[in-house]
Every structure is written in structure tokens, then in C-alpha cells.
Design goal:
Layout: H1 31-38, E1 42-46, E2 49-52, H2 54-73, E3 77-78, E4 84-86, H3 87-93, H4 95-98, E5 105-107, E6 113-116, H5 121-127, E7 139-148, E8 163-173, H6 176-196, E9 202-205, E10 215-222, E11 228-232, E12 239-241, E13 262-265, H7 272-278, E14 287-294, E15 297-304, E16 308-309, H8 311-318, E17 323-325, H9 328-335, E18 352-355, E19 364-367, E20 373-378, H10 380-383, E21 388-390, E22 393-394, E23 409-423, H11 425-429, E24 434-435, E25 441-442, E26 445-452, H12 453-463, E27 465-466, E28 469-470, E29 481-485, H13 491-506, E30 511-514, H14 520-530, E31 534-538, H15 540-543, E32 547-552, E33 558-562, H16 566-577
Parallel strand pairs: 3-7, 15-18, 18-21, 29-30, 29-31
Antiparallel strand pairs: 1-2, 4-6, 5-6, 7-8, 8-26, 9-10, 10-23, 11-12, 11-23, 13-20, 14-15, 14-17, 16-22, 19-20, 23-26, 24-25, 27-28, 31-32, 32-33
Helix pairs in contact: 1-12, 2-6, 2-12
Amino acid sequence: MLAPAPPPRPVRWSQMFIPTLREDPADAGAPSHRLLVRAGYIRQFQAGHYSLLPLAVRVRAKVIEVIRQEMNRIGAQELLLPTMHPKDIWDRSGRSETWADVMFTLTDHKGAENVLSATHEEVFAVLAQELNSHKQLPQAWYQFQTKFRDEARPRAGLLRVREFTMKDSYSFDLEPAGLDVSFDRHRTAYLDIFRRLSIPVITVEASSGAMGGKDSTEFMCPSEAGEDLVAHCPACNYAANVEKATSALDEVADGPGLAAPERFATPGVRTIEDLATGYDAPADRQIKTLVYVLDGKLTLVLMRGDHALNEQKLADATAAVEIRPAHPEEISDALGALPGSLGAVGVTNLPVLADEALRGRRDMVTGANTDDFHLRGVDIGRDITVGSWADLREVAAGEPCIRCGQPLELVPAIEVGHIFKLGYKFTEAFGVTVLDAAGERVHPIMGSYGIGVERAMAAIVERHHDEHGIVWPVAVAPFTVVVTVAQSEDLESAKVGESVYEQLIAAGIEVIIDDRAERAGVKFRDAELTGIPFRVTVGKRGLADGTVELTTRATGETVKVGLGDVVAHLRGALASAA
């Protein structure tokens, strides 16, 4: 039998490591980065790697507990798997190549190659080899585990790092209909998690990217600090990240064109704008020819002149692992011209991929594959051998929503969660099978679901701060209340402060007492900076009439409360904040 838990140890600001700073760190741009450093929550160890200090550890534990409760609520089981993996399991899934740019690798003393966990689909699939019967399904397994990703540009504090904690979970179902149920359960759990964490989210259609699988949904928190853009329609709530989003396009009336393309000189023309300005060729009547190397093969990618290519859409459309723009010398050797005069008319020796916005267009202008010359009167269906069509363009703000036709907004956002329908990729790669009801061996179908814990902490700060510091929601605050003794040198104030502090502990309220021999202004500033939801100020002036001050961090409102009413008043305030 376990011994009873010891009573909570008094927490005193004077004894806790809370290294607050008076000035913003010079290298911090995002509010969460700036404030988490200033308020003594984090310190950078090296680029992309942060030490979490005592206040941050308390917040992190609360974020994890909220996530754990909601995962348990949908019947998921908590595991803990290794962070170092033999590289050959990543070879078996094919992701040692697709994830090569972000994967940390190492060789042990015996010469065996290993990787540090960037994610855990492979390891969970290996574990799932012990499943044997459809009667064991569905299974939902989750963990809180460290991930390592070799980010090229770590930035914004905890928002873009190389080492972080992820809640990753994995579902195994007998058939696609079961995966749909598991996916929807996780979606509901994630919405509940972010609601409890006070993180507003937009659920968006997303590209699965290097994860694989068919369907995925991102949970995006609108924020100016976000690196992602979400196309969002306020009218009907359509939302997708720009790697997946599409929009309706206005009809373009093409003229009859010419019987054949006509060549004309365009000396010095190198851009879409040059051609539009000097040669009566509006951008929406131009064919922009981009040259890419897809898995080592030169490919022409055709876009409307006023449209931008989204490279993730190109990757999704072609399933290419390695994508890069072709070098000028590669382009010149293949087409005989340099960018600015390129086109696909008459090109049959290279694959040609065209954006759907060009389908059926005629009377268009494009490069002639001779420097300083273009072609007019181009009919795409007649003059260009298009091998495949795909949605490749990146949507722009103001374009009509694909569902309701109202203008789209482009909203910067932080990705705080992502869920995937992986399909059979990993269960097939690792030979995971179960006996179905007919006694046949079949592969289970798999889902994958992730939340970055420290990124969630940063997202909370991005949404909950003011000019004075962090404003933590009660559910994740490191402490609910700080008892601030305004004049520590005054024996009566110190004595009453201790009494209020003990009452709050006895009432089960998480509390810290600021007993430092500092000026009251310093203590008030630190309480605001660190974002503790409520401050009880004990000072000589209030004690003269038997009161203390109760300040609510979120509103700045201060009220006087009788010494005997502090606990009851705080309980009421906490009930209102819940």
C-alpha cells in the first residue's frame, strides 16, 4: 500500500528560481518568445533547444494533464516508447529518404545506424505486430514523448524548435469505417482540449505531406506570429491551409485566337509584368512556364501568369520526394532559352504538368524557347502536350470561396494540432495483420494524431497577453494566486500574509507567496509579467481597516476583501473563470 501523499510544500517566491528580466530580449520577436523569456519561464540553451524553468514546468504539466484527460475520455491508452530508433525501420517505411532533411542520425559503438525520434509511426507499427485478432480492435495508443527535428531555421521561441514534447496517438481499426470513427473521436477530443486550454482554433483541410495518407485536418490558432496561412471564409467557415486550399475563379472569355501560334520579338522581357506592360498581354492571358526537377527528372510546370505555384501542391500531385527548381544551365540545355522566354509549345521530350486554371484556355501568350521571343495565339489543348492536370496554384486573399462565393481571407496561424488518416502504409510495411471474422489475415488501417505541448503553451501566450505580460487562463497557470506582501519588513503585514497564504493552501488553491524583500512595485510588476490569474495584496493601509486587495490579472480590476472572506471570494472568482 502506498504511503499517503505529503502535504504540499510551501512555495515562496524568495526560494523559487524565477529569473524575470526588466527588458525584452533582443533576439525575441514573437510575443510568446519575448514574454516567456522575460517572465523567467524559458532560457535558450542553443538554437532550437530550450530549458524549461520551474514556472514553465508547472504550466507544461497542466497542459499535459488536460490532454491526458481528454485522450483517456475517448478510450485511448497511454504508453511510452523509445526516442532512439534503429534506422532500418525508417528504411522499411521509406521515410529515411522523405524525412532525411529533418532527421537526426547517429552511429553507436557497434557501428549500427540509429535515428532520434522525429515521430513514432514506425515504432508503434512494430509494437502493433503483437495484435492478432479483429476482436482486439479498435486500439488507440498515445504517449507524451520528446521529438527531435533538424529545423533549418529555429525561430520564435517555443513555436519552431528542434527538440519538443509531442502528444502523439495512433489508432488501429479493422476497416476504413472504423478509422472514420477513430478520426472523428480524436477531432472531437482535440476541440475539447483546445477549448480547455483557451486556444481558439480553426479546423482546416490540410496536406498530409511527408506523413502520407489521404485525409488530414489541422487545428490552426489565428496569430500574427504564425508561419502558416489559412484560407478562411467568414461567411460559410470554409477553411484550408494554403497547401490545400482552392477557390472559385472568375470566368475568362477567350477570343478565337489564331490558326497557329505566332512568334514575336520581346527584347529584354524577363517577367510577367514586362510582357503585360509592353505587349498587350495581361497576366491572366499568359502561360507561365516553370521548370522543376522532380525526383531527378526535369519537368515543365505551367501556371497562369497571375497565379503563384504552391510547391506542396506540386509534391502532392506528383508524389515526388525530392523537389527543386531547375538550375539555369539545366533549363538552357533542355529548352535552349533562359527563364523569361520559356514555353511548352512543341515540347514532347519532357513531362508537362499544368494547373487546372489553364484547362481549355486559348489565345494565350507564352515563351518561344528562344531568348527574347514569345508566342501569341496559343491554344493549350491544340498546341501543348499536357501530360497531367492538377490544382497547383496558391489561393489569394479576396478570391471567391469555392463553397459560397464570398471573398476569402488569408489568416496567419499557428498549427497547434494535426490529425491524419494514414491508411495502410505502415501496417503493410511492417507486416501488421489480424484475423478478421472470416479467419482471413488482413492489415489494420491506421490513424495518427499529434499535439505539440510546448507549442500549445506558446500559442496560449500569443492569444493571452497584454502590455504588462502574460495573462494565463486559470486552467494552465503555474499558480492560481500570488499573495503579495507589500511591505515585507512590516511584521504585521508579513504575519497576515502568511495567514492568508495558509488559508488558501488549506482550501486547495494553488498559491505562491511573494515574501521577497523588494519594493511593492517590483512585486506587482513580476506578478503581472508572469501572468498569475489573481493577486492578493497584503499591505499596511488595508490592514488598518481589516482588508486586503484582490486583483484579477485578466481585467486589472481590484476590489477590497475582508480578511475573513478571501477564500470565499476567490472561490467565487474561480467559479466564474471556469
